[in-house]
Amino acid sequence: MAQLRIALAQVNPTVGDLEGNADLLVEWTRRAAEAGAHLVAFPEMMLTGYPVEDLALRSSFVEASQRALAGVARRLAEEGLGDLPVVTGYLDRRPVSLARQGLPAGSPLDAAAWLHRGEILVRSAKHHLPNYGVFDEYRIFVRGDTLPVVRVHGVDVATVICEDLWQDGGPVSVTSTADAGLLLAINASPYERNKDDVRLRLCADRAREAGCALAYVNLVGGQDELVFDGDSVIVGADGALLARAPQFVEHLLLADLDLPPASLEPVTGPVNALDGTTISIDHRVVTEETLPAYEPRPHYAAPPLDDPAEVYGALVLGTRDYVRKNGFRSVLLGLSGGIDSALVATIAADAIGPEDVHVLLLPSRYSTEGSITDAEELVKRQGLNSRIVPIRGMVDAFEAELDLHGLAAENLQARIRANIWMGLSNEFGHLVLTGGNKSELATGYSTLYGDSAGGFGPIKDLTKTMVWTLSRWRNAQVGSDLPFLHPFEEEPIPEEIIVKEPSAELRPDQRDRDTLPSYDVLDPLLVDYVERDMGRAALVAAGHDPALVERVIRLVDLAEYKRRQYPPGPKITPKNFGRDRRLPITNRWRERTPHEPA
Amino acid sequence: MAQLRIALAQVNPTVGDLEGNADLLVEWTRRAAEAGAHLVAFPEMMLTGYPVEDLALRSSFVEASQRALAGVARRLAEEGLGDLPVVTGYLDRRPVSLARQGLPAGSPLDAAAWLHRGEILVRSAKHHLPNYGVFDEYRIFVRGDTLPVVRVHGVDVATVICEDLWQDGGPVSVTSTADAGLLLAINASPYERNKDDVRLRLCADRAREAGCALAYVNLVGGQDELVFDGDSVIVGADGALLARAPQFVEHLLLADLDLPPASLEPVTGPVNALDGTTISIDHRVVTEETLPAYEPRPHYAAPPLDDPAEVYGALVLGTRDYVRKNGFRSVLLGLSGGIDSALVATIAADAIGPEDVHVLLLPSRYSTEGSITDAEELVKRQGLNSRIVPIRGMVDAFEAELDLHGLAAENLQARIRANIWMGLSNEFGHLVLTGGNKSELATGYSTLYGDSAGGFGPIKDLTKTMVWTLSRWRNAQVGSDLPFLHPFEEEPIPEEIIVKEPSAELRPDQRDRDTLPSYDVLDPLLVDYVERDMGRAALVAAGHDPALVERVIRLVDLAEYKRRQYPPGPKITPKNFGRDRRLPITNRWRERTPHEPA
Fold this sequence. Notes:
By secondary structure, chain A is of the alpha/beta class. Chain A has helices spanning 18-34, 59-78, 137-140, 163-166, 171-178, 195-210, 307-325, 339-352, 369-382, 392-401, 406-428, 438-443, 464-475, 495-499, 512-515, 519-531, 536-541, 546-563; strands at 2-10, 39-41, 86-93, 108-116, 119-125, 146-152, 155-161, 182-187, 213-218, 220-223, 226-229, 233-235, 241-244, 251-259, 269-272, 278-285, 331-334, 357-361, 385-388, 431-432.
C-alpha cells in the first residue's frame, strides 16, 4: 500500500468575495503544508462561494473567477506552497460556448482545478447538475464530461463534484474503470435536519462502488437561507468511517491513508459512463513514486451532535453569517416577553455576542405587566442592550384620523412597532431580526410590514413545538463547551417566558388558541401539508382530523399570498416557505374550494 | 387542396381554477362550433393555467388536472359539441414515473390532448423544456417524445407545444418527415416589449422548415408578473402572414385554410429528431375525407399596436388580472401629486374602472400646496374615490419618542403613509398598489415598508423616462377606441403633474436630482447594466460616463438587498428585478469593490 496524508479544508467563503476567498485558500493551504499534508482539498465553488445563482451568467464575473484561480495558483508558488497539490472548486466556462436557445449564456461550469507549482494542472466540471429543491443548476451551468485522475506519490486520485455522488452513473462509475486509489469529492451540500446520516451512507455506498477510499470535503457557513454544515468525512474502500470533521465550524481534517498504489499504465480516454453519456479520463502525474513509510497520525472523528444541538447550531451559524457577510455588526429586534422573540434574542447573542444585540420593548395598552418584566429579566441575564418605547401615543395619533377595527386595528400596532425598529435600524445601522416561527407564518398569524418586517428571520423554519424544545435545550446548556454557544452563566431564557401561554397581545386577553388549533395538533399537520406536500385525502388518511385538515389547508393557502414578502432565514427542513417552494401567487387551485380574497 | 376552417381560442384562464377553465373551454368550443369551425385549439396548459410552478410537483393537483380533462371531454359530448375536434393544453404525467434523483417527482408533463366524441383521442407532451429567463421547466417537467399527427377532413395536423418552436430539432423537424399539412402550435408565451415581431418571424421560419402552414395560439391575461399578450397568428407554408388576433384581449381567430391533403399511407414510428433524440409519430384519424368545397371567409389580421400602446396594454391587463384573479374588487393607493402615482391611478382606473379606485392624499409638513391641488384635479378628472388624511400628528407622536435624522426621518414618513394604506386595506379589503418605477427601484430611491409596500406595482418595470412617455401617450388617447382604455372625456393626467420636477417631498425643497443623476442619462445606463448585464468595462466602452458608471453600479448593487421584498408587477422587459434576476442576497461580488452595508 501507498501512504498519503490528505487534508480536507472545511472553510467558510463568501459569495462573490474573490479576494477574501483566495486569501482563505492560501491561509488554509499553509496550515495543511505545516501539518505535513501531501494533498489539500477545498470545497465546491470555494473561490466564488456557493451558490452564485445568476451571477454565473455574467461574463464579467466568470472572467474574474478565472483570473482569481490563475492568480491564487501563482501566489501559492510565490509563498512557497507550490509543491503541495491543491484541489479547489471555482467558476469557469467552456472554452467554446455552446450558443443555443435554452442553454445558459456563456456555457458556465461548476468547475474544479488541481493547482501545482504555480500552474493549473488540470480542470474539470460537475457532470450531474442538481435541479430540484434549492438547486437550479440547469439554468446556470452546462455539464462537464471529463474525470481528472492525478497521480500523487504513486496514488491515482480521481476528483468529482457534489451531485456527481448523488446520481447513478457518471464520474463515480468511471472512477471504478479508471482504477483510482482515492476518490476525492468536493461539495457544497446544504444542511437539512438529519441529512448528515444520509450523506455518510451515500459516501459509504459510493466508496464501495468506486472500489476505493472516498474523501468528502464540504463547505461550512451561512449563505442567505442556506446553511452549510461542514461534516466532511473520509471513508475506506469498504465504506467504514475513518475520519469526520465537526459541524458548523471551520476545520482542517487531516488523515493518513493507506491506499493502493497505481498501476504503471494509467487508464485514459473515453469511457461509457452508464448514464447515457461518455466521460473522458484525463490522467496527469504529479509524482510517480510512493512515499517512504512514515508513522501515521491517529484519525479524528468528531462526535455527532444530537438533534436539537444540530438544529440550534445551524440557526446560530446561519444568523451570524447573514449578519457578518452582509456587512452588519449589530442586530435589533423587538422583545415582546413571548417565547419567539426570546429565542431569537438568544440565538443572536450566541451568534454575534450579547453586546451587539439591541432589543426594544414596545409596550401598548394590551401588553401585560409580565411581558415587560419577563423581557427585562432576559435582558439582564444575557447582558443585551435594551430600550423601552411605549407606543400608546403613536397608536392614539393614528386612531385620531382613522377608525380601524378588528384585525386592522391589531395590525396597526404591529406596524407601528415595525416602524420603530426600522427607524432605529436606519439611524444606527443595526440589522432587524424578525421573530416569526413556521407555525405562525404558515397559517398567516402574522402582520405584513409588522412583526414580519426585517432582514432575517432566525426561527422562520421552526414549528412552535421546536421553538419550545430548543428553548429548553438551550437553557440546559449552561456550562456546555459547544463552540457555537455564548458562555452564559445562568439559563438565558427565564422559565416564565417558556411556560406562559402564547399571545400576540394585540387586543384584551388575546390568546393564540382563540385563533389557531393547539400547536401539538397543528404542527404535525403543517409538517405533512407543507413539507411533504400531502393533499387533503392523504392528510385525512394519515390520521389528521378532517375538520382540522380543511381549516389548516385554508389558512395555509391564504397565507401564501402574504408570505412571499417575508425575509430569509436559515433552512433546516426541505420546505420552509422560501424560494424552494415556488408556487404561483395568483392561483385558484387550493386543496379547498372556492377561493376567497387573501 | 383540402379546405379547413380552424379556430384559435385566445383565452384567459386562471392558474389552478380547473372548473372555471373547463367552463371557458366549453364556452369557446361552442363559439367555434357556431362559427362553423372544423378544429378548435386552446393554448398551452389552458386547463390548469400557466405557469403552475411547483404545483406540478403535487400529485393531488396532477390528478385533478387529469380528471378535469376527462370530465371536459365528456361534457363537450354531452353538450352536443363532441364532433368538433378540440386541442388543448393541460397538466399530465408519465404513466410510469421516472423515479430517479434529479428528476421531478411524479414525472409531470406539459401536455396536449385532442378531444373528440367524449374521449381523449391522443396525448402528447412538450419536448423542448425552456429553463432560462422566467422559465424553470427542467425543475417541474419531464420531456415528451411523441409527435401526434391527426387526420381531420383529410388533412394531417401535427401539434407541438410552445418551446418546441423555439429550439432547433425535435418536433418541428419531425413534422416535416411526417409530411403534415398543418402544424398547430399551442403556446403560453409571455409578453416582452417588441416580442411580437420576434414571434412572427419565428413562426414564418418554422412554417418553411416544416413545409406547411402554421397556426399559433397563445394565452392572453396576467399571471403574477407575467402578462400573456395573445397575438395568435396563422402563417402559410411560405411564411406569409394569413391571420392575426389582437393583443391583450380574448379573441376567437377563425381562418379558412387551403391545405395539402394527406397521402393515404401515414408516416408513423420513431424518427431521428435531429437534436440527439428520437420522436415517435403517433398518427390518428378523425375523418379521412376532405370537405366539399365551400366559400372561405376573408382573413382577419389585427393591426399591430405601436410601442407605447403595447406597453400600456400590458400594464392594464396585468393589473386588472392581478386584482381580479386574486379575488379583489377594488384598489387603494397613495396619490402624492407626482407623476408616478398619477400614472398608477390612471392604469388602475383603466383596468378596473375609476369607481373601484380609492386614493389617499396624505400631506405632511413638507408637502407643497401644488401636490394636493394637482392630486385633487386628477381625482376630479377621473372620478376616483379620495380621502385626505394629514400625517403630521402621527409624525409628531413618533418624534416625541424617537430622535431620528436624515434618511431615517424621511423613511419614517413613508412608513407612516404605508401604515395608513395597509390599515384601510385591512379594514375595507382593497388591494394596495405601489407607485415605484424601475429607475427608483433599481437605484434604491425608495423606502422598504414605506412607498414600496403593497401587493402589486403596476409601473415597477418602467424607467422614469417611460413613465413620462406613457403619461403623455395616455393623455393623447382621449377619444381612442383601444379596448383597454376607460373612456375619459378629458386628459386624465393634469399637465402640471407631468411637467413638475420630480420630488419625494420628504424634507424641505427636496428634488430627485439632489440624489440621482438626471433620468435622461440614468435610464439608458440602467437598461445596459440591469437588462443587458453589462459589466463595468463594457458600460464604459458603450459610452457611459465612467464616474456615473461607478456611482450607478454602486447604487444598483446596494439596492438589491432591499429589492427582494418588493411586490410583483407586470414584466415588460426581460429583467425587471423580479424572480428572473436571481442573485444571491449575501454577495460581495459587485462590479465595484469593496462592499459596504446596505
